[in-house]
Structure formats: structure tokens, C-alpha cells
Amino acid sequence: MQEKSSGMNYAPRSVAGTVEPVVGAGEFPVGVIGLDHGHIYGMCNGLVEAGAEVKAVYDPDPVKIAAFLEKYPEASVARDEGEILDDREIRLVASAAVPVNRADLGIRVMESGKDYFADKPPCTTVEQLRRVKVKTEETGRFFAIYFSERIHVEASVMAERLIGEGAIGRVVQVINIAPHRMSLPQRPDWFVDPTQYGGIIVDIGSHQIEQFLTYTGARDARVVSSRVANYTVPQHPRFQDFGDATLTADTGAVSYMRVDWLNPDGLGAWGDGRMFVLGTEGYMEVRKYIDVARDPEGDHLYLVDNKGEHHLNATGREGFPFFGRLINDCLARTHTAFDQQRAFKAIELALVAQENAEVVEFVTQGAEF
User: Which of 64, 86, 142, 271 has the fewest CB atoms within 10 Å, i.e. is most exposed?
Assistant: First the structure.
């Protein structure tokens, strides 16, 4: 069982027997720069399970370095990021730096001739995204993004496979709900500063938009409406603990997404992420991390089609193929793990939704319940 009380420190691992390394020992060394978010452990877990070796790590904080070495004692500690960028053996650099710093680091990584694997969100402004796009074109390097809610959840992997096999016909609508536990005392200062994390739709909502594009096969979409609010953290007035948006894809499919930091402490997981996908011949619900009051484990997929009702437990059945595909793509210069244009489109739409969001004020005076 994975420790699921803290989303910031949740680091999925594959069920034994569901993953086979795609390279041998020492064939794919990776470097790690920036340990500001615990997602780096999930990123490294996936890469190592697929055969990568964490060769070197750099972060200016010795406490973070010490914690990382407990998980990856084989990594050497670099004196600075340049030592990793100059290492010709390292093929890929992974980073969970403060979100505002991820794009510029990625540009430096690509300029050094390496591929880049960033935690989401990969950037926090339209200008950052523009420069990243230019650099990928100039260098031909990959700018991969850790959209963990799709690539590191077996039920989400199963949903993608079933949709691709036509299990529910053409996708008409995706509803994605992503509540998170805030645990504010455990969070760093940058967590409450939107200039550092980009705003809630950029930070979390890029996940949901990326899933919408992937599951519908869309290449583009239009943001119809979006809203943000701060309902519970008045001491940090610029922080946002709620956001939602509706989109229409170029396929004609539509989406509603809700993201928030309002997950109650009584839940047995850091978030009750759920996705509902409606198709022309059926529908499905994915319960990603928990099945409330029934099963503390997640990875449940409920499918209704013309043949009946089906409950599928994805645990141990799908694995996490993204990581092996990414390694093979870096070696062979193929494009099987992710679609670069679609990844960029997801964060672009999140930036648009964030920028144009209506700011909702929480009015309490006169409210009666």
C-alpha cells in the first residue's frame, strides 16, 4: 500500500511483476536538479523501474539532498547544476524545482544537449512557454511533463487503453474532479504565492486539461469559462484554493474540470480524484486514489456499455508504460511516450483559463443554513 496521506509526498511504485526494464544497468543515466516538490520521487521511481540510473543530483538545500539520498543512495551529489549539464553520460534531467523556475531550467538542459522531464506545471507564464517551444524546435530535444494523474495511475492508464479500443465509442464529454488536501503548515512559502506556482488552474488544472485532450484525441480546445476563488485562506489573499473551467475541443467533445484544496482530513487519501468519461456507446468512472467508505485503495474503473455493468480493478493490470517509452524515445528519437504538441497545448490552455478566470468572492454575511 502506498502512503497516501500527503499529495506532496505521494510517490507511486509499480506492483511487482508489472514492469520490465527497457534498458540494462548503466545504459540510461539521469540527472536530477531541483527537489522542491515531492513529485520528484514519483518521477524517479518510474524511471528507475524502467531501467534508468539516477547518476547525480543537485539542490542547494542539504536537507533535501540528504532525504533524496535515503531513497537513491547510488546518486552522487553535484556541486552545482553545471556539473550535471556538462556530464556527457547523462541523457535526461528530471526536475521538481519551484514551478516558476522549471521552464528556464529546461531551456538550459536542452541547450546542453539533454532531454528534460519536468514536474507539472512546466511553466507559469505564456512567455515562458513561448521560449520553451522555440528551444525544443531549435534543439530537437524533448520537454516531457510529469502529468502523473494520467501516466502514474493504473486506472487512468486502463481508461486510456479502453477508450482507444473503442469501449465507449467516441468520447463526448470528460468531467474531471481533483480535490487535494492542503496541509498548509507542511507547505513551503512558494506554495501560497501565485507568481511562484502559477495559480490553481495552471498548477493542478493542467492535469485535467491534458487528460481531456488525450482521452478525446483533440489537438486543440477553447476555454469557454473559468473561475478561481480563495474560500479558506484569508491570511494569504492571493492564494487560490478553488478553480474550475469548461472547455470545448476541436473534436466537438466538451469538458468540465474542478480543482481545489478543500479535501477534508477525514478522507483516507490526499485526494478523491475522479473522472467521468461519456461516450457515444457507454461511459466510465475512474476512482483514482480511493473508493470512499468502501476500499482504501484506488485504481477502480467502473464501465457501463451495451453489454452491462463492469467493475474493473486496474491494480497490477496496466503498469506505467510511460516511463519505459520515454527512455526508448530518448534513445531512438521516437515519439511513443507523449505528444509534445499536446503537452504544450495542455499548459497553454491552463494559462489561458487562469489568466481569464473570474475571481469569485466568498460572501458570508446574511448566509443562512
Answer: 86
